[in-house]
Amino acid sequence: MFDDFEAPSRRDLLLMIGRTGGAAAMYQAMTALGHAAATRFTGPPQLSGARPGASVLVLGAGLAGMLAAYELSKAGYKVQVLEFQDRPGGRNYSVRGGDRIVEVGGATQTVQYAPGNYLNPGPWRIPHHHRTLLHYATQFGVELEPFIQLNHNAFVHRHDAFGGKPQRYKELAVDFKGHTSELLAKALNAGQLDSAVSKEDKERLLVAMREWGVLDKSDRYTSDLHVAAQRGYDKAPGGGVDGAPTSAGINGLSDVLDSHVWTQMGFYFGSVMQTTMFQPKGGMDMIGKGFYREVGKLVRLNTRVTKITQDDHGVAAQWTDTKTGQAGESRADYMVCTIPATILNQIDIQVSPAKKAAIAALPYSAQVKIGLEMKSRFWEENYAIYGGHSFTDQAIGLISYPNYNFFKGGPAVLLGAFASGAGGYQLAGMTPEARIAAALEQGSVFHPAEYKAEYLNGASVAWSRMPWIMGCCATWSEESRATHYQNLVSLDGRIVLAGEHASYYGCWMEGALLSSTDAIMRLHQRALAA
Amino acid sequence: MDRRACLLPVLAIAAFASAGRAQDSAGGQTSVQVPDEGRAVYEQICQACHMADAKGGDGAGARIPALAGNPRLADKDYPVTLLLKGRGGMPWFTEILTHRQMAAVVNYVRGHFNSFPGTVTEAYVDRVASAPPPKPDCMTCGN
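Predict the joint structure of the above. Result:
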C-alpha cells in the first residue's frame, strides 16, 4: 500500500517545515537532519586571479599566518612570512625530549622525555566540528587519532567531599542522576508540578525518571543490580557457579552534592567539549608542521619585527634577526599581521587610532600546563583508566592521561596540570622546579601509592612567561567586544589582523583559521579592486 | 562593612566560574584560596607575570612592565583601576581577587617595591569600582 508513496526529499521536508513552522522550526529541523553547521567553514577560500606581481607580507608563522601564506601564494601572490621564534607553529606547539623552554626572566628547562613522548602545552584536543582545522589536517596528511575526552572510570576530587578521597566519575554521575530523578518523581507524584506540566507529560516524565534515573518500584533511587549495572558492582558478573553479581552501595544526595560533579557533567555538554574529539598522532604540532611543509620556503625565522608602516603604495616591516643582529626591512603591497595583541600593542604600527585602541584592549589569560613523565602506566595497570581526565579542585585543575600507546608500558607522559584562573597564576609564579613539586603533591591525591614513586621527570609551560606571547589567549569582555571588535578586524589601509584574538572562537585553532580565512578574502577583494 | 557587601565579591567569583575565562579549561571549578595579605597576593598572583623581584621582563620586542620603581604607581588610582579593569595585556582581576585583596596588594607593591606614601583601603577600592566589573564574552569557553 506504500508503493505509490514517494518519500519527500530532505529539501521538500525542510520547505514544508519552514512553511508551517517558520524559520526557527526549519533551523531546528535542519540541525536535526545534519544541515546546519557548527562552524562557518564551507570549504577553503576560493581566491584566484591575483594581479601579477602583487605581494603580501605575513607577520607570524602560527596557524593563522601559515594559512594566509598558503592560500595567498596559491592564489598567485608573492608572499613572505616573518616569524620571531626559531620554529613555526606559534601556540600550535609540542615539547619533546631535548627541547629547551626559556621563560621571561631566563628560567630554562631542558625537556627529558623519552623518544615518542610529548606535552602539548597549548591546544591539545580538536572538536569533531572544527571543520577548517580538520580540512587542512586531512589535506596535509596529518594523521589524527581519538582524544579520549569522557572517561567514566576516571576520578573526581574535591578537598571537602568524601573526606578528600577521589571518587569515580561514573559513581558520582549515576548517583547525581538517580537522586535528582527521585526528587523530580516525588514532586510529580505529589502533584506539586501539576500546574507546570500536562497530565500526559507528567506520565511521560515519570517514565523518563524511572528509566533514566534507574528508580525502583517505589520511584526511589536505591542500591540494586540495575543501578550497579551503571555505577559498578560490588562483585561483577562472572561465569560458572559463582557468576551471580552483587550490587554496591550508593552515595547519599548530600555527599554527591559535595562533589560538585554537575560541573563535570555540564562541562561535557559544551559544544567544544563533546565527543568525538581528536589529536594528531605524535603531538599537536604535526598540524603546524603540515602547514610548514607547504609554506616553509616563504618563512624567515628568528625575525623580530620592530616597526610596521604603510602608505599609498605598500606596507613595510622593519626587523632584526635575533641570531645575527642583522637589521632589515621587508616590503609588500599588503600585510596580514597575526602577532598576538600582547606583543603588537608594544610595536610601533601605523594603523588608525581606533585599531590601536582595539589592540590595547585585549588582555591575555595565563594558563599553565605541566607534563610529568612516569616510569609505568600505573593508571592503566592499577586503575583501568585509559585516557581522559581526573578532575580536582586544586590549582592543577586536572590530571589527564595519555591517549596513545595504550597497554604499551612506560615511560609515559601524563598531563599533570591544566591550570587557569587563580591556580594558573599560582603555578606560573613558581620556578619550574617548584611547579613540578606542586603538581606531584596535588596529583598524588588520585594515585597516592604510585604518583611520586613512578615520577621520572617533568616540564612546564607557564604561558604568561613565554617571551614570544606573554599570555595564552585573548580575553574579550562584553564591553570590549562591543567597542573594539569591529575595529580590530577591519581592513586598515593595506593591513589586516588575524588570529584567534580576531574571532568569536577565541583560544581555539579553529578561531585562528576562520579569522585568517576571512581576513585574506577581504584582503584579496581589496587587492582586486585597487 | 556589612555582611552583604562582604559577600559580593564571592558571588561575583561564583558567577564568573560558570561563564569561564579560560576558553579551553580543565572542566569543573577549583577552590584555590588566595590569602588576604598583600605579600601573599603578590606572590600567588602578580608575580606570574611581573616576576618575583617585580622587575617585569622582556619578551618578543615587548615588555612586561616593572612594578618596582615604577613612577606611575605614585597615583593610587592607577593600580586600583588596572586591577578592576585590566589594561593592555593585563586582565581585570575582579573574578580572582576581592576588593580587600586588591587594596592589600596595591599597598604592598606601592610600599615594598616602591616607597610611595599613603595606603588604600577596601572601601577606597569599592569607591573606585563604581561601574560593574567586566563580563567575559566567550561563546566557546567550554564550561
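The first strand of chain B starts at residue 57 and ends at 58.
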